[in-house]
From TrEMBL:
Native source organism of the sequence: Chryseobacterium terrae
Protein name: NlpE N-terminal domain-containing protein
Amino acid sequence: MKNFFIGFFIILTLSACKHSAKDPDVTIVKQETPISHDDIKKVTLVDRHGDEMEIITNNTKNTVAVRLNGKTYELQKNVENPGFSTDDNQYQFTENKYEVTFLKKDADMVLFHAKKDQQDKKMALQ
């Protein structure tokens, strides 16, 4: 009787181990991350005091993200003035060929002002 139970247990164990570890019904689906086709440009400027400001311009959506002193400001294209401003109209960012200015409008205070590198222009003039 003992041998019958031991034999039955061995047969049961061997038949249970014949199943595949991988389930053939399971398929792995890879999710594709959407590729952004936005025209994004990153620039880091340093002013004469040594302060750094990072400017991330998205020309497709007409937005600018300004990172200054650990804070990030999201600005939208301003229809009335040349430049960008925040939704609450407290901050304004203007940029031209040679200068970048970021100011707080309600206090009339310039937070950052820097001149862009003019190395390319000097090389062209020579």
